[in-house]
Amino acid sequence: MAQLYFYYSAMNAGKSTSLLQSAYNYQERGMAVKLFTAAFDDRFGKGKIASRIGLSAPAELYENTSDLYEITKRSHQTKPLGCVFIDEAQFLTRSQVKQCLNIVDQLNIPVLAYGLRTDFKGETFEGSHYLLAWADKLTELKTVCHCGRKANFVARTDQDGNAINDGDQVDIGGNDKYVSLCRRHYAEQTNFY
Fold first, then answer.
1. Bind-site residues for ATP
2. Considering 10, 130, 170, 189, which has the largest number of Cβ atoms within 10 A of its Cβ?
3. Does the residue 182 lie in any domain?
4. Is 125 left (phi over 0), alpha (psi -120 to 50) or beta?
């Protein structure tokens, strides 16, 4: 029976690496997969999922208006899919998370979504919010703070490494703009408490 999985973490926990490894496992067994990534995240090139350790694979781009269910249904009719993978799943809309549920329930295809749990203000993204509420299985991928404790927050930083507390929820970047921290160090840098 297919299920919706949400693998979440702070930045630099290996979400994309895990996604690419899982997709490879399906393909190695002769099963077709569908990979999606957010259209506006082009840090590694358009239509590409890439990990910091050098793995990459082509992916279909999704925007807020993309119907993941219909796209997947058409692909599945052409060649049966063994699994659907979604990178940067925090950027999904509420409607798109429901589309993922329909992929699971109507097409009987597992969906593995990978994304951040919270933004730089400690608030959930829309996609993460509904994935945390509706996914069949939740798995936290862990990364560490500079102190060695589990990092479960992401701070946005300026060019000097100082935490920024204001701005749009989405500002695409990597280690140049964000740092993963434990709650204690996040609170110290952002005045969270």
1. 9-16, 87-90
2. 10
3. no
4. beta
